[in-house]
Amino acid sequence: MKVNIQYAVDLNEIPAEVIKILSDFDSHLTNLYCTRYRNIKAWINDGSLPDALEEIDRLRLNLADFDQRLEDAAALLTGFLNEKSKPQHTEEVSDLTEKEEKQNVD
User: Fold this and answer.
1) What are the tens digits of pLDDT across the range 2-58?
2) How far is it, in rounded angstroms, from Cα 53 to Cα 40?
3) Which pTM was predicted?
4) Which domain holds residue 42?
5) Any domain includes 35
6) Which of 7, 22, 86, 102 has the most Cβ atoms closer than 10 angstroms to its Cβ?
């Protein structure tokens, strides 16, 4: 069963969090593919096509897990870029607006 995990980090820590999410991709994905590919190839060569089909299915499920992590990483970076592209002076503008409103009331 898959569950969503949420936690807060500083905005500037998001790129590092994405690296953590993706950190085991290199070795794990390579090992997974090589192992599954060897198995699939051996079973096809031996005529064990049902076993090859099961292994292909397992590989597809593993790739779906990786795809979900990639989607999560992309969403984090998209949110980070959107937040960083906002004007930095928003607080200054809202402070000025509040001061102007107070002056208009007085």
Assistant:
1) 777 888 899 999 999 999 888 877 778 888 888 999 999 999 999 999 999 999 999
2) 8
3) 0.68
4) 19-76
5) yes
6) 22
